[in-house]
Amino acid sequence: MIKKSLFIILINLLVSYLLVEGLSYILSNPLYANAPNENLIFQIPYISDLKPFRVKTNNCGFRNDRDFVFPIKKTKPRILLLGDSLMFGKNSSYGPGGYLSDALTGYEVFNGSSIGGNSGDYYRVLKFYCKRIHPDYIFVGLFLGNDFGGKFQQQRDSYLFKFVQLGKRILPNTYTLYRNLKIKRSRKTGIDRIHDLSTADFKSQTILAVRQKSRRIFLCEKEYQRKAEMYDYDVLFNKYPGLKYSETLGVIADAILYQDMLEKMLMLKDRLAVKNYEDSLRDIEEIISFVNSQNNGVRLAFVLFPVSFMMDSRYAVFYRDLGYIIPAPEADYPLYKRLKTDLSTKGYKIIDLHDIFKDKDVYFKEDWHMNELGCKLTASSIAEFIKLQEKEK
Length: 393
Fold this sequence. Notes:
Elements: H1 2-27, E1 38-42, E2 53-55, E3 78-82, H2 85-88, H3 95-103, E4 108-111, H4 119-133, E5 137-143, H5 159-170, H6 175-185, E6 188-190, H7 199-216, H8 221-230, H9 233-239, H10 249-257, H11 261-267, H12 271-293, E7 299-305, H13 308-311, H14 317-322, H15 334-345, E8 349-352, H16 353-357, E9 363-364, E10 367-370, H17 372-392
Parallel strand pairs: 1-6, 3-4, 3-5, 5-7, 7-8
Antiparallel strand pairs: 1-2, 9-10
């Protein structure tokens, strides 16, 4: 009797799981890294020279003014932009896509970039939208910041993390269902109003955020809680008063959790950093293979976005003050050199923004995203690339 009851329970659990996964599959197409939302509001208090502005994304999460109803009648050649917040233009009211539309009025620009995206996300977005948009040019932005850090850079050696990842490889990931249901409930994101906190409140909330994040990504909660308790909030707020807002808790929490991540990643200092790079490179190769398999003459190029402090030491000050270990600008950056070599030797087209950005004020001093000038230069570099390609036809 007991065995029969256990069997029925197991069958019910299996059926429930399959039902959830089926719904997840239906609701998660397209699996989009930056889920559809509208009226994103960027009001970042610690960036002193950034004024609040709104960004509208369409029904597919693209940074385009109009919603997509497929099939979209094609009247002009099309450009598809993929990438993370750099290609999206997070701290720009116009973004690279907007400036590119102005520079190339004879083209339609589709900006499918996503804030916080990575190379795997770019591939999934491309795979779903390529035959729906039918682009003539595809530009994939590769940021040498978080794009090559791995999803959870520091904790991938933990047995618990390996167990969870193994489970995700064996079974489908139901998180896609949760994420899509959450999106259905609330389409608006961003900051409507910034909330000033006392130092004591900020500290207690940051400690809580560090505990929650460390638990979620399988780090030692007590160890990072101690680091959060010992963090010198007073010194930081005296220098950067705009940081003492509830919306910036995550900035300091990440600095406490990932102090040496940037250095390890950019310098390829350990086997984990190398593995993360190789994982990202496989995603890039999948993008290339997919584009080549379409047999429609689409042209693919990669846009390399440098990290701000690689260009000038003044951009490293803020991150060092937060507690990050930052390599010097004149350092030899193995990640950048290896990526450029790996792409070039295989004959892939590259737009390297390092030389274009050099000696120009294209970043915010308190944030590694580009300002309006950086977005304009990105757009003009892509436009020049297209003009050159058209001449060579």
